[in-house]
Amino acid sequence: MTALSHKIQISLKAFEYCFVEKALHQLNTMISHASSHIESKTVSSSKPSAFSKYTLPLKVQRFTVIRSPHIDKKSRDQFEIRQYKVILNHSADWSSDDLRLFLDNLKNARFYGVQMQIKLCTKTFGPAKKKDRTY
């Protein structure tokens, strides 16, 4: 099989930043392990795989609750929800079997307290389309 150019975007969301850091550490080890395993199988690799991390701004949602249901409107509590988000981009020249194996491992990985979203973009070469079509 031929190796195509794949781009994987993994976004992580959590309410605690320590959970995001743990998930990032596990993802970095998974990516480096998969890349070293794939590069050891092939004799010559066209370009090394690369990954980059982008931390998005902190999203804070604040709300106020009145403590007493009947009187004392001045007595209030304020709460906030903080949401941390990190995007990890990875681009590599992997075969479809290697990519499927990596995505299966990524799907079965457990990241507690973290929501993970995976986007995959693959460059493929198909037949040329005709510009002029008549219906």
From TrEMBL:
Keywords: Mitochondrion, Ribonucleoprotein, Ribosomal protein. GO terms for biological process: translation. Belongs to the universal ribosomal protein uS10 family. It comes from Monomastix sp. (strain OKE-1). Residues 9-119 form the Small ribosomal subunit protein uS10 domain. InterPro entries: Ribosomal_uS10 (IPR001848), Ribosomal_uS10_dom (IPR027486), Ribosomal_uS10_dom_sf (IPR036838). Gene3D superfamilies: Ribosomal protein S10 domain (3.30.70.600). GO terms for molecular function: structural constituent of ribosome. GO terms for cellular component: ribonucleoprotein complex; ribosome. This is Ribosomal protein S10.
